Amino acid sequence: MSSSLVAYDDSDSEAEAEKAEVPNTSSRQKSLPSSSVDRVQYFAPGSLGTKSTYEMQPPENTDSSGTGTVCEDPPEHYAQNNNTDLTSPCRRAYSGHTALCMSYKNYEQTSSSSTNSGNGVSQKRIHKDSTTAIKGIRPYIPKRLRQDNSSMPEKRESDQRDSSDCGVKVGISGEQTSRKVSELIKPYLGSKYKLTEVPKSLIFPMSKHSGPVNEIQWCPVREQSHMLLSASMDKTVKVWDAVDTGCCLKTYSCHSCAVRAAQWSSCGRRILSGGFDSMLHLTDVETGKQIFSSKNEFRISALKFHPTESNIFICGGFSPEVKAWDIRTSKMLRVYKAAVQQTLDILFLPEGREFLTSTDAVSRDSADRTIIAWDFQSAAKISNQIFHERYTCPSLTLHPKESMFVAQTNGNYMALFSAQRPYRINKKKRYEGHKVEGFAVGCEFSPDGTLLVTGSSDGKVFFYNYHTARIIRTLSAHKEACVSAIFHPVLPSLLATCDWAGEIKIWQ
Length: 508
Fold this sequence. Notes:
Layout: E1 3-6, H1 12-31, E2 38-42, E3 52-56, E4 68-70, H2 75-80, E5 92-94, E6 100-102, H3 107-116, H4 143-150, H5 154-162, E7 167-170, H6 174-177, H7 186-189, E8 202-206, E9 213-218, E10 227-232, E11 237-241, E12 248-253, E13 259-264, E14 270-275, E15 279-284, E16 290-295, E17 300-305, E18 312-317, E19 321-326, E20 331-337, E21 343-348, E22 354-359, E23 371-375, E24 381-383, E25 395-398, E26 404-409, E27 413-418, E28 425-432, E29 443-445, E30 451-454, E31 460-465, E32 471-476, E33 482-487, E34 495-499, E35 504-507
Parallel strand pairs: 2-6
Antiparallel strand pairs: 1-3, 2-3, 4-5, 7-12, 8-35, 9-10, 10-11, 11-12, 13-14, 14-15, 15-16, 17-18, 18-19, 19-20, 21-22, 22-23, 23-24, 25-26, 26-27, 27-28, 29-30, 30-31, 31-32, 33-34, 34-35
């Protein structure tokens, strides 16, 4: 097999060379059929004035299918070795007779200079998509798409650069225990949740955080519910084995400031986190890679996944806006605007058609717009006249069985509301006795809905009877303010608590 190489510079002599070559090419086309000659053009990046053309004549002994041959070496090899022999043995055969034309960003400059110079006849380059993918060759990008990509905002480019691997520290036996099924959980997987009892004894004290713990959450997947998620002011998010060993499995250092909120995804394989660095990160639990990352205009203080649409979440913070995001497209879906300064918490109502936000809009005598109900699809306000007392609500929680929700207030009590319009308050029930005193103290129902548990600024944990609103038991859990207490979704009477000193405890 013989191959010829033609190399020339883009100048006025180029047109004369092409004019002289026209009769030869026409006579060659007459002598040979169109399917017998394959032309491959390579444009090396960095050689603006050099064009390399390889004409490969088919061998005399070709098979009946008429397959041509294409050189195996990629164009990068020729770009790096301009002074060496550019001919190489052709070893790989490809079926078909389509021309392979691959070019880079200087394609426009090379083609325009060669076709417009002189009055000679020039051949028009035709780009045909090849059905065969050659490894190491970049695909051709049309000029219009290149202009669209260059005109995109720098914000999206920075978001893509930020979507790198997250700093992950694996604890002792972290890889082995992160996806196992705990022997303590297996007997309860096939049965319904039993009656919740008040925990009494301490099982695991876990104190790996160097700053206050803002939020804790059990993994929503029942088989993997031995894992506990924690977000802290020490800029880290941790995953714990809080059922068997009490050890820290993994530590994620994605944020540059305090992590205010973190949530498990419904599949239990991803963690969504937001913090005071105004960043949103969706991190893979196993690899630590950031699947989604975005910079916001405000500091994040609340996050919630949609109950039925697992790829959609809502975030709020130190801004009058609440935003809905789609992690599949990395784009913002809707913006919910309210005349407030900060969003304290977000709560989806059943079926996800409506959601509530608690804000800090408090006037002198009433708390107008303290709790706002929104329509998720239309982003319209349904009601902002839900809670009229002069206290903010740092946390909201939904009853697991009844259409009711509870709001934690800075008035040292919890108020009960209806989850259906017009979201009326139950004035006959008020869960009071604990202290909030400005801390973002969370509250939570037991899985069977019979108990309501809350932390307290004095470090205690209070257990209320949901029906009677009476205090059943008080647990002296921490020395600092206890900001969160949650029941395990599978194991009855297993409780996790965290405090402002960075300590997490498991009770049973």
